[in-house]
Design a protein that fits this description.
seven-stranded mixed β-sheet; eight-stranded parallel β-sheet; Rossmann fold; homodimer; alpha/beta; ornithine cyclodeaminase, domain 1
Chain lengths: ~325, ~325
């Protein structure tokens, strides 16, 4: 029997943000309880086309399926009117190896699962009733991070910083449409972001040098560090991490690819200084925030189990709607 | 634009064995001239289900596409009426990362490209006019090896050995239907295979200990060693290799996964004793057979470029038939 092919539109029509947050939350627990199998990613680098493809796979013991994700970034694509993100997820039956569903998601499910991870982290680590958010970055992930955050926090004011003022304005327009009640303000530089009583800072840029200085981070702030997901990427001053309770998605992965890599190489932290992994906090094996004044950082690099969880969610939902199994 | 999905039946209807031999021949040259990019395969091992999935990718500089192959073996599948081989190939546009074609081939194209490699090797290494073949093994690959060989050699007599006599009989029936003029005989053991003036020996089993002793290999024989394609697999007495001109598909890969691994670990050969790679012989950078009495061995482990070549061939043919591009 051939696999079911889901096109991007089919997939987008099935998604419910609150449900996604739920399945991603559970996936972190699967990972941190050691039930996940995630082989080393395969990288295909096509330098002549500024392109790269990463194959990431994941299986969780007891799961009906495993997932192979093909995720590409081809950075000249926008010049010819194409998205730089491309790719698909493939769900395969664990018992037989039969491909059951091919999700032609063009990188969108990765965007959603990454944004949902930020919401899950804030749920466990930010102060309850957080109202003021600073978002650093104006791209698709910076948008989705806030859209997901709005589901779990009573955000009232959003401060936005972007390298390009034009893009920052577009960003504001987009978010205002999504959330008319939200008060949105552009901050021109990080100095303007000081002393604003911000509760949550979200960074979601491809930066390779720190954008957020330590003096912007007031007491009690939670930071979602989303952008740094490969060696060299860097958004936060390393001293923010050393002064904070640091929670990772995967400490092993963050040591190489997350913000943590820079805190380690700068010598301001050791791996043992990491408080724990998000899955451990969710499953109550590690404490989350235990003081309204402490600073917390969630270092996100992205896990194969999140891909498996969201692909499975979409396929299950498709089957439910279409009464297949 | 979504990729074209080709189901197994569509694919099988497009194939022409002679054309496949041609594209596989060319792929070996691409590999040996260093134009190929083949990242380390990704392995997903599901021990609880006796299942394994390997992700193999390949790109050839200048090619319009690259290929990602998902190839699975789930060895309990036959118990529930399913093939143990499962999987697909995905052709992706090199310039943009856009998936162009998903070939739901369930491992069949791997079978065909592997069999075609045997024919190409025999074309360059066996004596012209070879008439007598001994095939060791009775599975799908043992069948296809002979079917492809028949395209390039005037085979008259086929000797078959298999562990199970019943399967050997089924094998004969299958080949007789495909090639009514062929004389087919079962040999009960390797002793019976001696002094039969055999020209070509093909081994295509999953054996982990040598099946072919040196005394079966007469002067002038060419051997296609197909079965050994991972550490531990083993079909030929290592002394056959040390007495022969050894040509590999990839010397680096055969050193770890082919017959060569055993000749090296037994100390009867060094890597430098390998005569060359098949691509070097095809492109005339290394001599093939230059004496009718010499013994030649082709050590086949399977290359990603062969997957790319056959997937590309099928997709091009589909486009030609359907006037797409």
């Amino acid at each position: 029997m051939n696999p079911i092919i889901l096109e991007k539109e089919d997939i987008l029509n099935l998604l419910d943000f609150d449900e996604i947050i739920g399945v991603i939350e559970k996936s972190f627990v699967d990972f941190s309880t050691g039930k996940a199998l995630m082989p080393t990613p395969q990288d295909i680098i096509l330098e002549e086309f500024k392109g790269e493809t990463h194959v990431k796979s994941a299986y969780v013991k007891g799961s009906k399926y495993y997932c192979i994700k093909i995720a590409s970034g081809f950075y000249d694509n926008p010049k010819i009117g194409l998205n730089s993100s491309q790719g698909m997820m493939i769900l395969i039956e664990a018992k037989t190896g039969l491909p059951k569903c091919i999700l032609l998601e063009e990188g969108q499910l990765t965007d959603f699962r990454t944004a949902a991870a930020g919401a899950v982290a804030a749920k466990y680590l930010a102060n309850k009733g957080s109202e003021k958010v600073l978002v650093v970055g104006t791209g698709i992930q910076a948008k989705l991070q806030v859209e997901f955050l709005l589901r779990i926090m009573p955000i009232k004011i959003l401060f936005v910083w972007g390298r390009s003022e034009e893009k920052a304005k577009d960003y504001c327009k987009h978010l205002q449409t999504k959330s008319p009640a939200l008060e949105i303000k552009i901050v021109k530089n990080m100095n303007e972001a000081r002393n604003l009583a911000i509760d949550i800072i979200v960074t979601a840029t491809p930066s390779r040098k720190p954008l957020v200085p330590k003096n912007v981070v007031e007491k009690g702030v939670h930071l979602n560090a989303i952008g740094a997901d490969m060696p060299g990427k860097h958004e936060l001053d390393a001293n923010i991490l050393s002064a904070a309770k640091v929670i990772t998605d995967s400490t092993a992965q963050c040591s190489k690819s997350g913000e943590l890599q820079h805190a380690l190489s700068a010598g301001v932290m050791k791996v043992n200084d990491v408080h724990g992994e998000l899955g451990e906090v969710i499953s109550n094996n590690k404490k989350g925030r235990d003081d309204p004044e402490e600073i917390t950082v969630f270092d996100s690099t992205g896990l194969g189990v999140q891909d498996l969880a969201i692909a499975r969610y979409v396929f299950d939902k498709y089957c439910e709607v279409n009464k297949e199994n």
